[in-house]
């Protein structure tokens, strides 16, 4: 079988050459699509259920929220474990699935069971929601929204948080590859109605009367329509409150033909939600900020680039005196990791080329063997995209060019030895094309088995790595996969080497 492949490659040099150019072209196309990151993502396959229940203690959260969610999701196929924690005002349930489970199928199963849990959780405690489709390495970008120097008096903590939630966050959520933008810092704006109990008692009403009045008077309603000639006028009433004055002007009841408004029994003002911390900027006061979470499996470099472009556009829409300043950018870490890989690969390739030229004793023969290195790299990148392996410090940094060119060295050296041996006989110094092809076929055929078995032995060494599971498997499998992808081009490289050796002999024949 191998001899037939060698014979085919020698007889069809044009086809082999076209295959080489096709590999180069398609390889450069796939380079642009290769996901780039610093390290492999070792986060397990998980779905998080988050429930926010303000003002409830950890004991109530555990009994009324966390436990029902755990019970409802305890029998999903492919589930490995459930872990949770309950604290004041918050319930977090993490459901871990096997690595071969589709994350979106798992989220669908959890969402269906949460519909059942809704009937078990008392009304008013909280609504369980699924966490973003992200991982432990999903935090790719962090920034602050702060006032410029001289504008601190115009934008306090509440205004900065409002700008972050209503302007910046909403636009960043539309960026491709962004799973979530988690805001923090500042003061979350709220309309606060501080009721005076003494006034309630004096007017003979309860706090429920105030709640009901606000609920009834804070909504828009629709009606029919009126035909007016060629036009149609739609009927609607506007009752949504827009400011503090609108809330204060809501009528509660009309005792003795005198309307009683909310402002008569309560103080309406702008407040903020209960805070559990603060975000400060260089000892210059409080600011607002956010963390941008990347979608699981997305290309971090591409997502960060899109986020930066969108932030540049958002900056133009912000009020005067407010700026967005990043303080954590995954790009720097990724660039440092990839720079280390590029440096090591380049130095390794140069050393291999030098050694090949030195020991083969022929500059062109050394370059022929060394040309296998970029071909193997391009083929490996194509396979990495096919099997979903990202380019990182573990996958690309594991390439050993000495292993890659091992088989090609054996073939080229055998062909060079055979041709040099015949050149010692004057009658064979000028041989025909057919005789030259025969010599290349004969010498390559003798060494093909040794070269192939050598590559197979190298691949066998990496087989135990493919059996690793869990965190170890996610960390080291990309390394073994990339090496295997690079070595799988050995047959193609041998055809290329055979063809180039024939071309090399044609050059020598022309000189003779």
TrEMBL record:
<keyword id="KW-0812">Transmembrane</keyword>
<dbReference type="Pfam" id="PF00873">
    <property type="entry name" value="ACR_tran"/>
</dbReference>
<feature type="transmembrane region" description="Helical">
    <location>
        <begin position="12"/>
        <end position="29"/>
    </location>
</feature>
<dbReference type="InterPro" id="IPR001036">
    <property type="entry name" value="Acrflvin-R"/>
</dbReference>
<feature type="transmembrane region" description="Helical">
    <location>
        <begin position="393"/>
        <end position="415"/>
    </location>
</feature>
<dbReference type="InterPro" id="IPR027463">
    <property type="entry name" value="AcrB_DN_DC_subdom"/>
</dbReference>
<keyword id="KW-1133">Transmembrane helix</keyword>
<protein>
    <recommendedName>
        <fullName>Cobalt-zinc-cadmium resistance protein CzcA</fullName>
    </recommendedName>
</protein>
<keyword id="KW-0472">Membrane</keyword>
<feature type="transmembrane region" description="Helical">
    <location>
        <begin position="344"/>
        <end position="360"/>
    </location>
</feature>
<feature type="transmembrane region" description="Helical">
    <location>
        <begin position="367"/>
        <end position="387"/>
    </location>
</feature>
<feature type="transmembrane region" description="Helical">
    <location>
        <begin position="451"/>
        <end position="471"/>
    </location>
</feature>
